[in-house]
Request: fold
Amino acid sequence: MTRNISKNPRKSEDEKNSSFSLLTNDDLHLFNEGNHYRLYEKMGAHRVEEKGGTYFSVWAPNAEQVHVVGDFNGWEKGKHILTPIQKSGVWQGFFSGVEKGDIYKYYIQSRENGYQVEKADPFAMLCETPPKTGSVVWDLDYSWNDQSWMDKARERHNDSPVSIYEMHLGSWMRTPEGSPLSYLELAPLLTKYLKEMEFTHVEFLPVMEHPFYGSWGYQCTGYFAPSSRYGTPQDFMFLVDTLHQNNIGVILDWVPSHFATDEFALGNFDGTHIYEHADDKQGFHPDWGSYIFNYGRNEIASFLISNALYWLEVFHIDGLRVDAVASMLYLDYSRKEGEWVPNIHGGRENLEAIGFLRKFNEQVYKNHPHTQTMAEESTDWPMVSKPTYVGGLGFGMKWDMGWMHDTLEYMKQDPIHRKFHYERLTFRMLYAYHENFILPLSHDEVVHGKGSLLSKMPGDDWQKFANLRLLLGHMFAQPGKKLLFMGGEFGQWAEWNHDKSLDWHLLEYASHKGLQCWLKSLNHLYVNEPALHENEFSPEGFEWIDCSDSQQCVLVLMRKGFDEKIIVALNFTPVPRHDYRIGVPCEGAWKEILNSDAEEFGGGGIGSLQPVQSEPITWHGKPFSINLVLPPLAVIFLKCQK
Reply:
């Protein structure tokens, strides 16, 4: 490793460790038994201002020696030597004169095979900007201004609207020179945009430090460090603070399922596999070329749960979306016969990972009952979002991957063939209340040759936009929280490219501007009409009016809040349906409150412009009915004006 070695190290050759320690015997005991959930307060590098130095501690149970090397000692080992604490596996030391901003690593000499390596600090609060790999002595001082938001958090519950804008920090918008925006630059621009679009939350793809930008953050090396590509931890706090002051929640993508194999990071940390399994059949992920945490090791539970609480407590994060949960649950995930190790009962379930996930969720909700954990789980594992005391995994919500795949497959079909695939739209309601679902149209569906949402739609350009408005309207009509990846709201033509900004210039065209206006209107309706967000996780909030008109590809449903009802009619063909009768539950004039074919959204302006009075004609099992005009490739939302 090449370093710029200072000719005048600030510290003398005979500088020694002091007896100062942040770690108590209780800390060490809890850490080793897997029940220390705030290790970030004690482990890593901590400036102690009153003593004029920095305290270091690191877990390396199989090390022979551990030294701190950095720009303050010319990157020379032997000057700042750590000492082991009892039999905990933890090494510590206090060194005067080590300042905030100093760069450092741990030089580790292992008892195993003479292994020697420089490692970044697993608990570093800040890392050098990649491709540099050093850790940086830092602090987490910040004056927050979001108390009003944090107080309101206690009032939020499952019947509150949740519309999430999923985004990648480095490619949402860029400078004219093509550089990613910093946290400080993003704060006013992103906040203004999300407020205008009326999203309730933003979800960032992983912000934790990662050496390979093209991994989008899913190959972490610095679990406790917001990526320095965009600024300091305080800069990221400012971004979160600004969003909170404008009533926008912040969710982080969190990756406890696997981690990067770079030599300077967690893998083979002290010459042995203390973070990952030693056996590649358990410890190496074939899909992503990454290491898998050893969830059966107590210290790993302490490390990961401490990390989860760190983001919630230090950075005021409102929720964690847990990536690739299915890969954690199954020992044979993406593995052929003979490539995996069964559990103690001979099964394929990863019992240690299941135990960890339950423990993680219990601690999150015990300490922060008004936050949310969200599982990206792509199989039919039971009770993912049910409490652990009834046998569930304990997540608050789960992504409905089945809905995403079925719906996109249906929407790709030429409308003339859609009648043969009608069940892809209706099947979801057979399982919709098995979990607390989020409906995702996520980043995974607009990369790797899959094309953008708009490009997936069939037909000419007019039909593509109409179909995409219909798809988004269908998502907001369904029970479940909403998630849309950036660019989908205005019809990005190209699939997502992490090296470029979104194509904001498209908003100069009426069709793209109309689509954006449609999504804003959907968000507004969803937030302000209780029937669309109350009872989202209860069968009492939904009723089919007609789910059998496969020949005309029409769906009619009713969303029910505690006191109000909204009817939604969707026409999945380019043929207008005149005199289309539907049953309604009560007498009154039913008014279109939103129509995706309205001219302001780029549509043809077809629909029922005036409220439609119900008639005492029994239809669809309802005592009253109304005659509608269903616009082509469109969705209409109706509300009774009594």
